[in-house]
């Protein structure tokens, strides 16, 4: 929540949130260009003056939507983020992401990624806001891997592994959306987690090797 939002009354915060939620849904369904401020006003059930009371222009609303979608995506995974310091927790997180896409019938893709693809080349401010959201997502994954590394259970660089895992997730989500099947997401995440698991296995003597006496 920004300092400006905190200065609003409770009713003002609720109205602002309703506008942002309506805008987020419309931008998710129609894209940035097709989701007009008039559409947002109608969907939120507010007047045009109320929209402009909280947001100077569509750019300001877009930045609020990026923050809103980032919080929504991360909050949904938060209970699982706390368990990413074990392979069992990582697999549970993977299963949850796949099942969520299955419930959505593989529609919509990643709300943050969808926004990012629309603003990456023509809106530097929004691009940085989306990138910041992805950095928070990456950090949540990295925290669990760093805990494993600190305990001596994981070889390799937790930062690189977290980035690779998030990249696999995003690529899997895009292909799942396009192909309308969860297999791309399953394969992408399994490949990433299998690699992480291989780095948790300690070197063992080969079968048949005599132990030192």
CATH class division of the largest domain: Mainly Alpha
Rg, nearest Å: 21 Å
Q: What is the CA-CA span between the terminal residues?
A: 64 Å
Q: Tell me the name of the CATH homologous superfamily of the largest domain.
A: Tetracycline Repressor, domain 2
Major pleated sheet: none
Shape call: elongated
Share in helix: over 70%
What structural category arises from helix and sheet content? mainly alpha
Number of strands: 0
Q: Helix count, per DSSP?
A: 10
By CATH, the topology of the largest domain is Tetracycline Repressor, domain 2
The overall average pLDDT, rounded, is 91
Number of domains: 2
Domain HTH tetR-type: 13-73
Organism: Streptacidiphilus cavernicola
DNA-binding region: 36-55
InterPro entries: Homeodomain-like_sf (IPR009057), HTH_TetR (IPR001647), Tet_transcr_reg_TetR-rel_C_sf (IPR036271), TetR_C (IPR011075)
Concise summary:
The chain is mainly α and 213 residues long. It has helices spanning 3-6, 10-30, 37-44, 48-54, 58-81, 87-103, 111-119, 124-150, 158-179, 183-198.
Write a concise keyword list for the protein shown above.
213 residues, mainly alpha, Arc Repressor Mutant, subunit A, Tetracycline Repressor, domain 2, 2 domains, 10 helices, 0% strand, elongated
């Amino acid at each position: 929540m920004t300092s400006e939002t905190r200065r609003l009354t409770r009713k003002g915060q609720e109205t602002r949130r309703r506008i942002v939620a309506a805008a987020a849904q419309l931008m998710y369904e129609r894209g940035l260009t097709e989701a007009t401020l008039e559409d947002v006003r109608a969907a939120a059930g507010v007047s045009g003056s109320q929209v402009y009371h909280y947001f100077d222009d569509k750019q300001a609303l877009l930045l609020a939507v990026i923050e809103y979608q980032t919080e929504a995506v991360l909050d949904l995974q938060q209970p699982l983020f706390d368990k990413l310091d074990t392979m069992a927790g990582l697999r549970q997180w993977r299963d949850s992401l796949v099942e969520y896409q299955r419930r959505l019938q593989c529609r919509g893709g990643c709300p943050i990624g969808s926004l990012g693809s629309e603003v990456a080349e023509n809106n530097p401010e929004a691009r940085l806001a989306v990138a910041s959201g992805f950095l928070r997502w990456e950090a949540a994954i990295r925290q669990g891997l760093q805990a494993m590394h600190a305990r001596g259970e994981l070889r390799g660089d937790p930062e690189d592994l977290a980035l690779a895992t998030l990249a696999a997730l995003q690529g899997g989500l895009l292909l799942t959306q396009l192909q309308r099947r969860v297999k791309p997401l399953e394969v992408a995440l399994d490949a990433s987690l299998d690699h992480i698991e291989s780095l948790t296995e300690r070197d063992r003597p080969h079968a048949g090797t005599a132990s030192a006496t």
